[in-house]
Specification:
Strand content: 35-45%
Structural class: alpha+beta
Shape: globular
Protein name: HMA domain-containing protein
CATH topology: Alpha-Beta Plaits
Order of helices and strands: EHEEHE
Largest sheet: 4 strands, antiparallel
Radius of gyration: 11 Å
Number of helices: 2
Helix content: 25-40%
Strand order of the largest sheet: 2-3-1-4
């Protein structure tokens, strides 16, 4: 299978919300690795196999507020 890389812009103001975002991403099916990227450390980069980006973003929106796929 093809590895896909999804970058999601989040409104993460503090380290607590960053760790929450990483925890949520880790729970998603098919995720192999993830990290916080971007100049303002406000982007979640998820790499995985058959990850459902729509489901992941809606989960993040529920918990953290603003989230969009870049």
């Amino acid at each position: 299978m093809l590895q896909q890389k999804i970058v999601i812009q989040l409104s993460m103001s503090c380290d607590k919300s960053r760790s929450k975002a990483l925890t949520l991403a880790a729970r998603a099916a098919g995720v192999t690795s993830m990290g916080i990227t971007g100049d303002g450390r406000d982007q979640l980069e998820v790499v995985g196999d058959g990850v459902d980006p729509v489901c992941l973003v809606s989960c993040l929106r529920k918990k953290l507020g603003h989230a969009q796929i870049i």
